[in-house]
Amino acid sequence: MNDEELLALSNERRAALDIYEMRAIREFYKTEKRPCTDAEFETIAQTWSEHCVHKTFKAKIDIDGTSLTEEQKKAYPGLCVNSIIKTYIKKATDDIDAPWVLSSFVDNAGIIEFDEKYEVSFKAETHNHPSAIEPFGGANTGVGGVIRDVMGVSARPFAVTDVLCFGHPDTPAENVPKGTLHPKRIISGVIEGVKDYGNKMGIPTVNGGVHYHEAYASNPLVYCGCAGIAPRGKHRTKPSAGDHIISLGGKTGRDGLRGATFSSMVMDASTGDVAGSSVQIGEPIIQKKVAEVLIDARDQGLYSAITDCGAGGYSSAVGEMASALGCDVDLAKIPVKYQGLAPWELWLSEAQERMVIAVPNDKLEALQKLCDANDVELTNLGRFTGDAVLRVRFGEKEIINLSCGFLHSGPPQRKLKAAPPKDGKPFIKYPEYKEPDLNAALKAVINHHAVNSKEDIVRLYDHEVQGGTVLRPYDGPEGNVPQDAAVIKPMETEGKKAVAISNALNPRQGLLDPYAAAASAIDEAVRNAVAAGADPEKTAILDNFCLGDPNRPETMWALIEMARSCYNTALVFKTPFISGKDSFNNEYLSSEGKRVSIPPSLLISAMGIVPDIGRVPGSDFKKEGSAIYLVGKPQFSFGGSVFAELFGIPSGESAAVPPFKKEAAELYKKLHSNIMKGLVLSCHDLSEGGLAAALYEMCLSGIGAELKEDFHTRLGASKIASLFGETTGCLLVEIKEENRSAFEKEMEGASIYEIGKTCGKAGLKL
Known about the structure:
Elements: H1 3-12, H2 19-32, H3 38-47, H4 50-53, H5 55-58, E1 60-63, H6 70-75, E2 80-82, H7 84-96, E3 101-103, E4 110-113, E5 118-126, H8 128-133, H9 135-151, E6 156-166, H10 183-201, E7 205-212, E8 221-231, E9 244-249, H11 259-262, E10 267-268, H12 271-274, H13 284-300, E11 305-308, H14 313-321, E12 327-330, H15 343-348, E13 354-359, H16 364-373, E14 378-384, E15 389-394, E16 397-403, H17 404-409, E17 415-418, H18 438-446, H19 455-458, E18 469-471, E19 474-475, E20 481-482, E21 486-488, E22 498-504, H20 507-512, H21 514-531, E23 539-546, H22 553-573, E24 577-583, E25 587-589, E26 595-597, E27 601-610, E28 627-631, H23 642-647, H24 664-676, E29 682-685, H25 690-699, E30 704-707, H26 711-714, H27 719-724, E31 731-735, H28 740-746, E32 752-759, E33 764-765
Parallel strand pairs: 1-17, 6-7, 10-25, 12-15, 23-24, 30-33
Antiparallel strand pairs: 1-2, 3-4, 4-5, 5-8, 6-8, 9-13, 9-14, 11-13, 12-14, 15-16, 18-21, 19-20, 21-22, 22-27, 23-27, 25-26, 28-31, 28-32, 29-31, 30-32
Helix pairs in contact: 7-22, 9-10, 10-13, 21-22, 21-24
């Protein structure tokens, strides 16, 4: 086949393979001196998909230095980045070298030490394209899939997170792109999908966020996270030749076919019609039973390796587990939902609720009894062989005979280009500034979609099941005060330790300055965890990048700037990355040829160890007459702020994204020490909406706040900037009057400012 025919084949099969990858396949089969089978082509396409192999993060990226400053040129030696993952993300973890990180970037989820007996795991995934065309199913199976990731490191899931990005719900129908669903329909479907899976599996949904931007209308982002716990040393990762390949759980259907390749493509008006079957159908009760079987199988030592069956189905799960050994698989043994599936469909279906484990021969009988007792279907697909060849047959008919070396090392490294936008930095158009009344401004800010209460969504999720939730999404005396992080004490554990889970994402900042936005996201995620009692020296983070088409240089520029910032900022905090996920091609191409790309969107999730649950402060004011301090040196700015979106940039104020301050790392350590000594009654970070919004939220406890007349002078800023400007590295704390001296002494050398006091009358006096 010539190049034109190769690309036509890739497009016809929706394989999302470029010409270099298609040529590599052609050359392999020339060497093999035989034609490629349909099943082999589909296997290669999913194994080499962006979704599965992360080609963009491994690409060699050449940078156009024409418009770069000298400082930017120095940041990119040779104007080239050879693998983002190696240069920035994994390198940060390697350079930090935290001894409490037990596993990072090598398994289904990252793992850190909880205590001497237990380890905790954390993973966040995206399910964006599926949620755009079938919101309930996309979100539902997104949650199910990330839960299986945690099951795939032999852990019991104890918490779920969800961060959702939507178009504005009041978008006029005529402005909704052709072939896409209205944001209202996407929002309701996604929320129901998240609720359905977590609630039915009995896993609390404890942390998340909801963001709105017009560019998410046709490309919603659905970030799903899960945390798990397991006894240390119980997770087995090495199958042996002769082990049985065992599938546990759901039956196989056509749902989810080509999901990995579909998620690697730009969407258009026809996507819903041609890719509808790429969205899976979930059955959480089946997965709950599988999870229970796996815990017992783990404790009894019945398997030698485990992985989840997600993107690519058995092709991915078995293929990856057999990458060094090879295998012999008989597809005729697979239980099906209905008849009529072709062998390649059985192999690549992404039907849900399936786990694959390697089982030694002498353990198979015990595993079968365990499955029978729990009404879980066990299927013996074949064996690992030891000859590094992937053999797949249907009965006696062989449909795949592939070298594992070619399959997993064959894709050529992508070569991409990066350049800043030609017309300068992307910008946000703000209204012309007219100074508002302060109280009117406060009302507008707290009603903005970035700040207002999300209780109507959160209350649909069960965040109490399992009985380990210490700090809820909304807490305080009336259960209505938004918290910075969730705190959970897994039921297996003893003592006072717990886990804090937080997140941060700001699409408005991503549009203005990707580098600053990434630093701000890491800072806020860590800051949120610290505010809930987490030890900043025992906090790990996850990175989830969502951007547009990587073949566009401006997309790659935003990506490398974010990744470089991740490296630099993680080193300051000494917060290792333990897992991550990227999602590209989050764009919509209209029938008129108009391209709409999402803002550069980086979600940072943090997991930190809380040494003492009795010291968790929460963000609700506790006591009348307490002193209110701002902790951290503020550098107020209006770039990407809620206030600026509503009223414009005040004259003389900064329109940049708030800069990251390195001193925050030491500040958070000192604050954590004070929290653990019981000196801090409540603590809340400054983020969207600034100081005024944070104070208002703390006052929802029923205890009011009164600011000093000169509070803004103490902070070195104008009143409007002090109230509504946004900054990194700052928190509000409530300190008992009798503890002020001790607190100030403990915080010596750090920037702290007494700005007011709590009062008996509910409300905020500006």
